[in-house]
């Protein structure tokens, strides 16, 4: 139980939480205990909470801890303030938009990591150590020296020591992909990709008048023989690969396949764009393709999938100086730069170790969510157990667009295979993203509803008449 007693005089608060010595931040323990008390009915809507000073005195903690706990409880819609009358348990908030979003690939919020505190501390350090004027002006060189040094450190697990001068700091991976298409290809050029690929590639290629042609893949990713034949036939401007926990199939390409594709790129003199947002989330992934053909491969690593999308920071490794200048010129034509303030925050977190702690929390939470999905989707789940998403092949009585519509009518958003198709056909599957629902209990409910839907057959379509 999270409460000790319920009595009504002011000297003895009506509700007191128990605090554990090793239970994590105290303000979160208090907020969690309050949430449990409401869920168990010990505290009911309209109940008055102890004053912050009284609760601080009874728990022998500082007032700031209680203030943060109450702020966190308000953020969870558990409390409401009524001016001088005090703080009260809030009535349940009507859920006007009950969609459970399993469609957006974002990192799950890590349990036990106080993100608000991390943000405040990081920004405080940035503002103390930086020239504020430089945070509010143009940076035309693809990031400051410090930002590129942080990028080199972030990429050490993949490449070891890197020259920071070979890195460009970008406002996200999508901007990097678009700028690389502009810099390295011409209108009408072919871009080769797997049959199911990141939709942002297709969006950028279409916008710039490039054609995407699908190269057949197997359970290990793009097939070498098919790539070589396509290179000789189409003379592509680029090959796009997402070899680790591929979006959407979740396939991690083995090292031998990576070496083979790198060798083909060298023989055919074609550039590979290696979009690798999930490498740091994977369990013992092989070295990047860029390790096997350094001069042929441009490598992209974004913080959006490992830390948080709000940073809008990606690091791009472009070893050829002439290509790097062309890439920067293309980037400046539509995105100019990463926002200096968020880039500086990313740099601060990387250099002081906060990013590693946040990454570890995201990896742990992602694995917990995969285990949950495996239990609920038993017999259908075939994921690798890490990363942010599952590629779920459907029973024959469902097609992916049909299931996505049925799920939407049941308040669940998933992404059908058609959204990822680069060719004329697509696999009968959906992508389920596990990180976008913050609360683990709501994720569980969404997966259970989806499992029931998969087990049933689609209902005949009937149009409503009003």
UniProtKB/TrEMBL annotation:
<dbReference type="GO" id="GO:0003677">
    <property type="term" value="F:DNA binding"/>
</dbReference>
<dbReference type="InterPro" id="IPR051446">
    <property type="entry name" value="HTH_trans_reg/aminotransferase"/>
</dbReference>
<dbReference type="GO" id="GO:0008483">
    <property type="term" value="F:transaminase activity"/>
</dbReference>
<protein>
    <submittedName>
        <fullName>PLP-dependent aminotransferase family protein</fullName>
    </submittedName>
</protein>
<dbReference type="InterPro" id="IPR036388">
    <property type="entry name" value="WH-like_DNA-bd_sf"/>
</dbReference>
<dbReference type="InterPro" id="IPR004839">
    <property type="entry name" value="Aminotransferase_I/II_large"/>
</dbReference>
<dbReference type="Pfam" id="PF00155">
    <property type="entry name" value="Aminotran_1_2"/>
</dbReference>
<dbReference type="InterPro" id="IPR015421">
    <property type="entry name" value="PyrdxlP-dep_Trfase_major"/>
</dbReference>
<keyword id="KW-0804">Transcription</keyword>
<keyword id="KW-0808">Transferase</keyword>
<dbReference type="Pfam" id="PF00392">
    <property type="entry name" value="GntR"/>
</dbReference>
<dbReference type="GO" id="GO:0003700">
    <property type="term" value="F:DNA-binding transcription factor activity"/>
</dbReference>
<dbReference type="InterPro" id="IPR015424">
    <property type="entry name" value="PyrdxlP-dep_Trfase"/>
</dbReference>
<keyword id="KW-0238">DNA-binding</keyword>
<keyword id="KW-0805">Transcription regulation</keyword>
<dbReference type="GO" id="GO:0030170">
    <property type="term" value="F:pyridoxal phosphate binding"/>
</dbReference>
<dbReference type="InterPro" id="IPR000524">
    <property type="entry name" value="Tscrpt_reg_HTH_GntR"/>
</dbReference>
<dbReference type="InterPro" id="IPR036390">
    <property type="entry name" value="WH_DNA-bd_sf"/>
</dbReference>
<comment type="similarity">
    <text>In the C-terminal section; belongs to the class-I pyridoxal-phosphate-dependent aminotransferase family.</text>
</comment>
<keyword id="KW-0663">Pyridoxal phosphate</keyword>
<keyword id="KW-0032">Aminotransferase</keyword>
<feature type="domain" description="HTH gntR-type">
    <location>
        <begin position="24"/>
        <end position="92"/>
    </location>
</feature>
């Amino acid at each position: 139980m999270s409460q000790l007693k319920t009595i009504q005089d002011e000297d003895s608060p009506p509700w007191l939480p128990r605090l554990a010595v090793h239970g994590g931040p105290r303000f979160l323990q208090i907020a969690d205990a309050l949430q449990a008390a409401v869920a168990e009915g010990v505290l009911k809507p309209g109940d008055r909470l102890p004053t912050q000073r009284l609760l601080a005195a009874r728990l022998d903690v500082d007032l700031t801890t209680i203030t943060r706990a109450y702020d966190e409880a308000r953020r969870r819609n558990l409390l409401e303030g009524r001016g001088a009358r005090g703080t009260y348990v809030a009535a349940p908030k009507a859920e006007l938009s009950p969609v459970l979003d399993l469609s957006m690939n974002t990192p799950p919020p890590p349990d036990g990591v106080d993100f608000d505190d991390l943000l405040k501390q990081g920004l405080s350090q940035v503002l103390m150590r930086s020239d504020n004027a430089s945070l509010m002006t143009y940076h035309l060189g693809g990031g400051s020296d410090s930002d590129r040094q942080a990028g080199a450190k972030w990429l050490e697990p993949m490449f070891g020591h890197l020259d920071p001068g070979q890195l460009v700091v970008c406002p996200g991976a999508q901007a990097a992909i678009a700028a690389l298409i502009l810099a390295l290809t011409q209108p009408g050029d072919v871009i080769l990709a797997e049959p199911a690929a990141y939709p942002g590639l297709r969006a950028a290629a279409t916008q710039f008048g490039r054609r995407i042609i699908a190269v057949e893949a197997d359970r290990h990713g793009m097939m070498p023989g098919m790539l070589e034949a396509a290179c000789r036939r189409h003379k592509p401007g680029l090959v796009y690969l997402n070899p680790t926990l591929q979006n959407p199939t979740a396939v991690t390409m083995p090292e031998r396949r990576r070496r083979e594709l790198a060798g083909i790129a060298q023989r055919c003199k074609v550039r590979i764009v290696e979009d690798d947002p999930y490498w740091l989330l994977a369990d013992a992934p092989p070295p990047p393709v860029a390790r096997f053909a350094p001069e042929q491969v441009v490598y992209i690593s974004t913080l959006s999938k490992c830390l948080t999308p709000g940073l809008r920071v990606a690091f791009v490794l472009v070893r050829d100086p002439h290509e790097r200048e062309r890439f920067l010129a293309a980037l400046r034509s539509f995105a100019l730069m990463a926002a200096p303030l968020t880039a500086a925050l990313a740099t601060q977190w990387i250099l002081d170790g906060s990013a590693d702690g946040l990454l570890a929390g995201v990896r742990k939470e992602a694995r917990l969510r995969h285990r949950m999905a495996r239990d609920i989707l038993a017999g259908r789940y075939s994921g690798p157990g890490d990363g942010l998403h599952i590629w779920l092949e459907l029973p024959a009585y469902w097609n992916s667009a049909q299931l996505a519509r049925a799920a939407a009518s049941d308040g669940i958003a998933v992404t059908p295979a058609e959204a990822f198709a680069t060719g004329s056909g697509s696999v009968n599957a959906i992508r389920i993203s596990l990180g976008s629902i913050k609360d683990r209990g709501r994720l569980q409910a969404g997966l259970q509803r989806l499992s029931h839907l998969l087990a049933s057959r689609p209902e005949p379509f009937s149009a409503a008449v009003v």
